[in-house]
């Protein structure tokens, strides 16, 4: 993901105010925990159940930002469950569990549900929540990621967004499939993940049906509503390739299309490095307002129009589509592990540059290594454990990419390719940790890599030039020439410094 910085302070506040609750022991009768146990954001997600599918029936009126919905959630209890929580910011009108009315209460982002009978461990259950509200006005804490635009809305955000448009278990550990039906006034478009299965119109409203058949983290489910030019064609691997460009992009429409329409080419390139593309659809969305970052929404990244103000920008397309492997298919087990996502997505931009003759990965490493003096605060954020307030710090991206190049230098191209492909294959549709990645790297390379990983991921300060840290002597040169790719990569990353 490429982001702005505005959330940093409020992320820290959210983390400080959240109350940690350890999940109940499997098999113990009682309520599910109100958090998934994330060490950075202990209030995110919930315990006691595992969701397999969300069916969302939505009706949205752009004129007043009013959203009505019915969410049917298919889940399995992971303990004998007497009560459970859903993460939700709007107003629940009714809740049924297994067809029976359930008691419920709301406090902040927690919707607490008490079913009429205990849900036995291991058995399937359905939760049906009817709700409504004005998402842009939902006042449940210091952050409201919902974006209202002049012609619609954007449900796009990280690390949280889903609670502002559907109730769920909002943590990457609990992935699910989705059916999303969005009814909007005729003449308005509605885009989501996966495949557009059908559209229908009745009484002045058009319903857009989207199906996403691969397990997806809640924050990677998205919705874009407004005036869009939608194109459907065949993309890489014979898959549906759906793009949507705001009708209001004006002169930015050309460079936006010149970038996002190269997605199939980008995916073909990345699949040769990372292995089989993990999903069954692809595409991209470019709104014209309200968004100051790009996000790797599963199968359909969303890009701020700001990325294309100066020229076409393929680097940001490479970055967000690399996330389809690193972040979407293999997600963070907790948000502390964000480096695996952002390091690989940023390094993918370097690999694209190397393949297209605009700067080798070594040249780019040397450039960025020299761009930050040893006393720069940049080196005080360790990507392997950046802290909740610095989850999206520049160091997670740039130092993260440098760490991967250092690993490649230390173990060689063949081992690096083996590490990368094995990682995405073994953790597909699941999650992973930094520690698991380190273990795999040592196993596949046959090398002891403590000094390298400690220097790059866990120690404050600039790693020294040394074979043990993977820093080649060339990186210590003064006046390192700037590769041509730097301008585009920096344009792709510049919005990172405005939101975090």
TrEMBL record:
A biological-process GO annotation: proteolysis
Pfam families in the cross-refs: Peptidase_M1, Peptidase_M1_N
Cofactor dependency: Zn(2+)
Presence of keyword Ribonucleoprotein: no
InterPro entries: Aminopeptidase_N-like_N, Aminopeptidase_N-like_N_sf, Peptidase_M1, Peptidase_M1_aminopeptidases, Peptidase_M1_dom, Peptidase_M4/M1_CTD_sf
EC class of the enzyme, as a word: hydrolase
Domain Aminopeptidase N-like N-terminal: start-end pairs: 52-220
SUPFAM superfamilies the record matches: Leukotriene A4 hydrolase N-terminal domain, Metalloproteases ('zincins'), catalytic domain
Descriptive protein name: Aminopeptidase N
Organism: Saccharopolyspora dendranthemae
């Amino acid at each position: 993901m490429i982001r702005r910085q505005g959330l940093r302070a409020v992320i820290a506040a959210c983390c400080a105010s959240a109350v940690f609750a350890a999940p109940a022991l499997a098999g113990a009768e009682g309520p599910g925990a109100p958090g998934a146990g994330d060490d950075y954001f202990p209030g995110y997600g919930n315990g006691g159940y595992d969701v397999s599918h969300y069916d969302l029936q939505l009706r949205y009126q752009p004129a007043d930002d009013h959203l009505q919905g019915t969410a049917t959630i298919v889940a399995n209890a992971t303990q004998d469950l007497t009560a459970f929580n859903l993460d939700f910011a709007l107003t629940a009108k009714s809740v049924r569990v297994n067809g029976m009315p359930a008691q419920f209460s709301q406090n902040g982002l927690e919707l607490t549900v008490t079913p009429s009978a205990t849900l036995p461990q291991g058995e399937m259950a359905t939760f049906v929540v009817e709700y409504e509200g004005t998402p842009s006005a939902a006042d449940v804490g210091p952050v409201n990621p919902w974006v209202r635009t002049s012609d619609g809305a954007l449900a796009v955000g990280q690390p949280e967004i889903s609670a502002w448009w559907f109730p769920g278990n909002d943590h990457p550990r609990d992935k699910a499939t989705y059916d999303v039906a969005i009814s909007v006034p005729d003449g308005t478009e509605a885009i989501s993940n996966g495949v557009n299965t059908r559209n229908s119109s009745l009484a002045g409203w058009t319903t857009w049906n989207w199906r996403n058949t691969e397990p997806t983290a809640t924050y990677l489910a998205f919705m874009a509503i407004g005036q869009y030019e939608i194109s459907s064609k065949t993309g890489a691997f014979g898959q549906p390739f759906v793009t949507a460009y705001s009708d209001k992009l004006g002169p930015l429409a050309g460079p936006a299309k010149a970038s996002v329409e190269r997605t199939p080419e980008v995916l073909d390139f990345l699949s040769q490095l990372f292995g089989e593309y993990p999903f069954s659809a692809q595409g991209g969305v470019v709104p014209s307002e309200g968004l100051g970052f790009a996000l790797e929404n599963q199968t359909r990244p969303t890009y701020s129009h700001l990325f294309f103000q100066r020229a076409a920008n393929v680097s940001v397309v490479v970055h967000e589509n690399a996330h389809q492997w690193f972040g979407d298919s293999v997600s963070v087990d907790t948000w502390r592990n964000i480096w695996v996502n952002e390091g690989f997505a940023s390094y993918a931009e370097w690999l694209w540059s190397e393949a297209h003759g605009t700067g080798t990965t070594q040249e780019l490493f040397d450039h960025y290594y020299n761009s930050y003096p040893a006393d720069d605060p940049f080196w005080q954020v360790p990507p392997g454990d950046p802290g909740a307030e610095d989850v999206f710090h520049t160091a997670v991206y740039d130092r993260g990419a440098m760490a991967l190049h250092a690993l490649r230098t230390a173990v060689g191209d063949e081992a690096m390719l083996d590490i990368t492909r094995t990682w995405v294959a073994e953790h597909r549709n699941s999650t992973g940790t930094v520690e698991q990645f380190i273990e795999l790297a040592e196993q596949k390379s046959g090398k002891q890599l403590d000094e390298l990983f400690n220097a790059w991921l866990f120690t404050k300060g600039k790693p020294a030039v040394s074979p043990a840290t993977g820093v080649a002597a060339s990186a210590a040169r003064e006046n390192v020439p700037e590769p041509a790719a730097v301008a585009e990569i920096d344009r792709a990353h510049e919005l990172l410094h405005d939101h975090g």
